[in-house]
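Request: Not sure, any thoughts?
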Amino acid sequence: MEIWKITQVRSSNSATKRQIATLEALGLRRINHFVEKEATPVIKGMVEKVHHLVKVEVK
C-alpha cells in the first residue's frame, strides 16, 4: 500500500461540522499539522471530503 502524507493547509473555521469531524478523524488538529496514513479506500474517501483543506503527498 502507498503511504500518504496528509497536511492541513487551510483553517477549519469556515468548514462544516461534518468536515471538521473528518479532519479530527484523520488526526489533523491545526494548520501545517501532518499525519502519515496508508492509502486505503476509507482514507481516500475522507481526503476527498476535505480536499480543499488539505494537501496530500505520496511517499
About this structure: Residues 8 and 31 are 5 Å apart (CA to CA). The two ends are 10 Å apart (CA to CA).
